[in-house]
Amino acid sequence: MTRDQVESLLETFDDDVDAWRERRRLSLGGSDLFPIIYPEDIGGYSSEWSLWANKVHGRDADDQSLDDKDWLAYGHDVEPGIVAFAGRKMTAEDPTLKVVPYRNAIFPDPGGAPLHFSPDALVYRKPGWELVGGVDAKRVNVFHWKHAEVADQWGDAGTSTMPRRCTVQGVAGCSLFDVPSWVFAADRGTVPELFPLLPSDDDKAALRDVATTWWQRFIVGDEEPQVDGSNATSDALKALFDSGSEEVLAATDEDLDILDALRIARDAFDAAKGVKQGLENRLKHRIGTAKGIRGVATWGWCKGRKSLDADPFCNDIAAAVAEAWVLPMLLAGGMDPDEARATAIAEARLVVQTSRNDNTNRGEPYRRFGLTRR
Predict the structure, then answer these.
(1) Residue 238 in domain
(2) For the segment 11-35, what is each residue's pLDDT rounded down to a tens digit?
(3) Is residue 144 domain-shared with residue 274, that is, in the same domain?
(4) What is the DSSP letter of 121?
(5) Residue 300: which domain range?
(6) pLDDT of 328 higher than 80
(7) Residue 196's domain is classified under what CATH number?
(8) Which of 160, 190, 220 is the last residue of a domain?
(9) Position 154 in a domain
(10) Nearest-angstrom CA–CA distance, 214 and 153
(11) Are 28 and 114 contained in the same domain?
(12) N or C: where does the chain have the smaller number of CB atoms within 10 Å of the terminal CB?
């Protein structure tokens, strides 16, 4: 497509946020597709059920208001600067490219599929102004605030290593605009870094098929996605249903089955908390009494990333980890007890010792096992 053809499809809403949201309900955007592709990931911004509730009922638990979310407002405000930086860098490497920003715009799928996309910028090639790709700006610390693990999912600049949510979004952009590549400009606290994504034609076609099938099944059809245990679904339920009603309903057999399962789950949860506390106390005791430690060693969850600096400390931590986590898993798998114990200690010591000696991966045992030396 040329720039004129692309912009003939353009739908703009200026500052009319309500109209923009209402338009988004009419099809699936690039950011909508992650819970459809990865429904098992219940830690994201949305779930299949919350997405369905938004499209069908128009209730959005996460209203994305900039008024009461400073982190979101900041990310929204700095995105044009990130796009401008990416544009300068891309055109410096290839002067035939032109990066054109688009703000608060929606592009519907030219093929009529129930898809739309709102890119931060599109990339054209002069002199014919042929569309060749797109750009999306990401403030990585914003992702980190919402998802503690996401900041570590970005790899080296120039690679396609990025969070799966971004990968899905990039494939969606390439599929809708029928372009070979999409670039993510990620601000990770320094100057933005560029992460190109070049999905295969099979990936683009597969994503389109999955999205279209989901839309036909749950939006056009009368099915409803499974209600899951994600925070996104909990928030959507609060937004959709009135919690102040005092109406009493008679429980059905299915309701009673769910209540029984809930009681069992609560009992199991309480028992697991006791096991967890016991393991934590054992680790505290072992770390506190470990020999060869300079200073005081305490236990905590991911509160430090200093490397281990004493072999006795490494060995004792490895033994504690082996006893608490690795050994039970090996025994559950049917391994001989003596062999399981030796294997568990060897594997745990290897992880701890390797992390200690690898300066590019300092502190890995803390993140993996929740151990902190102060």
Answers:
(1) no
(2) 988 777 788 888 989 999 998 999 9
(3) no
(4) E
(5) 259-369
(6) no
(7) 3.90.320.10
(8) 220
(9) yes
(10) 27
(11) yes
(12) C
Give the span between the Cα atoms of 169 and 362, in whole angstroms: 32
| Same structural domain, 71 and 198 | yes
The tens digit of pLDDT for each residue in 107-124 reads 999 888 999 999 999 999
> What letter does residue 144 receive in the DSSP assignment?
H
Q: For the ranges 13-17, 166-170, 274-278, 366-370, which has the lowest average pLDDT?
A: 366-370
Residue 202 and residue 293 in one domain: no
Which position has the token pair 């979101």?
Answer: 72
pTM: 0.69
Could you tell me the CA-to-CA distances from 180 to 85, 123, 355 in Å, in that order? Answer: 22, 11, 39
CA distance to 47, 131, 184, 325, 342, per residue, from 7 (Å): 32, 11, 22, 57, 66
Q: What is the pLDDT of residues 283-298, one digit of tens each?
A: 666 665 554 444 444 4
| Token reading at 323 | 């006893």
* Total of domains in the chain: 2
Place of tokens 């032109």: 98
Question: Does 240 map to a domain?
Answer: no
Percent of the chain with pLDDT over 70: 69
Rounded to 5 degrees, what angle do the CA atoms 229, 233, 234 make?
A: 80
Last residue of a domain, one of 190, 220, 250: 220
Using alpha carbons, list the distances in angstroms from residue 114 to 27, 57, 189.
5, 17, 36
Q: 328: Cβ–Cβ under 8 A, 6 or more apart, which residues?
A: none
Q: Is the pLDDT of residue 6 over 80?
A: yes
In-domain check, residue 237: no
Q: For residues 18 and 55, what is the distance between their CA atoms, to the nearest angstrom?
A: 14
pLDDT score of 275: 78
